[in-house]
Amino acid sequence: MQTIRQQIMSLLKNYEMNAREISKALGIREKTVYEHLEHIRYSIKPQKKKLMIHPFHCLVCDYIFKDRKRLSRPGRCPQCKQGHIEAATFKIVNIGDIGVKA
Ligand SMILES: [Zn+2]
pLDDT at residue 1 above 80? Predict the structure, then answer.
């Protein structure tokens, strides 16, 4: 029996997913997914793995939240002040694979 955190890691080693997709796949709340991701992000470093983040972006003005420290969904865009934000997606990759730096 795997823990929720292990199940999230198994999913993200195989698929690029957003938090909503993960929450649906595992039957947990989206907020809980982000909490686990925050932990996974650091805990996988010794395994030479990295949580790759395809960042949130604004559907109105294309602003990209690339310097965002937190993983959770932003409320609205700092540039155009709209709330139409496309979800970030996450994947666990091996450091050393093509284009992946620590
Ligand atoms: Zn915007």
Answer: no
Alpha helix (H) residue ranges in the chain: 4-14, 19-26, 30-43
Give me the domains of the chain, ranges plus CATH numbers: 4-94 (1.10.10)
Distance 77 CA to ligand 1 centre (A): 5
SS3 content of the chain, % helix, strand, coil (to 5): 35, 20, 45
Q: What are the pLDDT digits (tens) for 5-54?
A: 999 999 999 999 999 999 999 999 999 999 999 999 999 999 999 999 99
How far, in Å, from the CA of 81 to the mean position of ligand 1? 6
